[in-house]
């Protein structure tokens, strides 16, 4: 082990060696011996006797290492020059008229109206496919509507005939739920699709419905027990895919609007350092 010393100005000569405490293995031997003594208490006496002998040897060796004087090793010194240098920081200021700041992605987004249109269009497509399922399976368009509106009921036994019949209150509840969900998901599509430049329809029309259906599969028994007992997951997934594809196509056909890329201070005209030109900079040739 070498010790590097820094040169001190004014010293006539640099030391060539330095004294350091000599390394020793006896403390490790003492610790191992005490550990064997403790181990022998739960195993056999022989282990304790070996540990005691090792502990005594470690104690004796450690004492001889430090008594009557500590042993030292002479370690050669390798002097190294210390470079002395100064550095000054320069402050750069960004003019408000120059676009040199970090861009905020996405550069363009869809307006809120695009998400509303996409959600309503996707809701119509999903409702049409759900009513087609009702006609083919139960010869009643009210069957899927009543299943969705049955969220207002608790865990009660409802017959198939009751679900196939028309109920005004279930129709109103189903329309409110379907409209609210469609608008919210449509707004979400409008916000996310600009961030998915590659295959937005594949991600928004296939991947998102798969994730949404998987989540509902685990929690639907809590949200709508009657729907969970009678739902056909194949038709449900198909209706979700129809919603995603139609909503995505409608949103993609809308005109994007650019986002504000300037900082708030620059847009407000505040004379903040680093954002506005200084008078002295304007006067420079």
Itemize the secondary structure elements and their pairings.
Elements: E1 17-21, H1 26-40, H2 45-66, E2 72-76, E3 108-109, H3 112-138, H4 142-149, H5 160-164, H6 168-192, H7 200-223, H8 225-230, H9 233-252, E4 257-258, H10 264-268, H11 279-283
Antiparallel strand pairs: 1-2, 3-4
Explain briefly what this protein structure is.
This protein is mainly alpha-helical. The chain has eleven helices and four strands.
Task: Give an overview in words.
The structure is a single chain. This protein is mainly α and 285 residues long. The chain folds into 2 domains: 17-76, Helix Hairpins, CATH 1.10.287; 111-255, no CATH class. It is 57% helix and 5% strand. It has 11 helices and 4 strands. The protein has a two-stranded antiparallel ribbon with strand order 1-2. Helix 1 (26-40) runs antiparallel to helix 2 (45-66), helix 4 crosses helix 6 and helix 7 packs across helix 9. It is elongated and about 105 Å long. The protein starts with 16 loop residues before the first strand and ends with a helix. Residues 1-8 and 274-285 have low confidence and may be disordered.
Separate helix tally = 11
How much of the polypeptide forms β-strand, as a percent range?
under 5%
Number of domains: 2
What oligomeric assembly is this protein in? single chain
End-to-end CA span: 61 Å
Task: Label the structural class.
Answer: mainly alpha
General shape: elongated
Task: Walk across the major sheet and give the strand order.
Answer: 1-2
Would you tell me the overall average pLDDT?
A: 76
Biggest sheet, open or closed, and with what strands and sense?
2 strands, antiparallel
